[in-house]
Task: structure prediction
Amino acid sequence: MTSDPPPATATDSLPPAIRQRLDDLIARAPAELRPLARQYGPTLAAWTAEELWDWIDLLMRGRWQEAHETLLAGMSEGDLLEEFRNLTAELAAANIDQARKRHLLTEAATAVLRGVLVLAVSLVGL
Amino acid sequence: MTPSMTPRRTLRFLLLFALVGLLCCCNGCGVLFLSAERSEQLDDQATFAVRAARQARADALDADGRLHAMDSTAAYFADLQDATGWFRPVYLAPTYEHLLQRISLASAEALHRARAGQLSTDGSTAVLGHQAMFLLLLQDARDGRAGTESQAYLADLQARLDQPPAAQPTPAEVTP
Result:
């Protein structure tokens, strides 16, 4: 998977001028939105103005699932595979994060409950 | 109730049992809760998807086999998404629920392209590999497991997919 040469992405098919403009826009985007802009920007930049407005209309109506489907349908094969790679990495990162939180929560809850348990045992008179 | 068990003492015993129960819950709860039946389905689907991904990588899976494997796993993700929520057989933490929605949509799009003959062989191999990884990662989420280093963890998952195929998966093997 990772050893295969990456398929062509939507960025590769863009005219150089649009690619340059897209790079500028990504550079000017807030740091936290840059990964998203880099991920979906090339797909959006390849759309016509009408397609873009239809997509924005879906977002404004709160039909995000359809908007996401449209976005995926507009992606090149390379960008779709990039989406799969990102999802794999995000799921792995979520597992690491959740395992760490779970460990902390378990430790804290166990400590509190052990204290209460000792109190309850003494109340019962065991 | 024995004469020595006063209502107050009974109440204290109940409190004690409730605390012990809470203690067990805190040790056992996870971000992904599946009923026993759903848990078994996840294991079956993961086994199937890993086999299919290995065979696809070894060029031992024809177009129909790839399509079937992709279809089966995409249907599983959609089914899992439908069954998610409080008081349902599947509970997912919000982060996982959001990721599952995206996984489900991406899988449906890949399947749509594969059916239309718009997905290359390399592309379908990659999709099958990622779908198998999603399922392995969901198993880990269910069991509360995680690697210490993200990249090392992914490399380990990749290594599990890189092992030679064991047996030919059959369409009847998995019913999500």
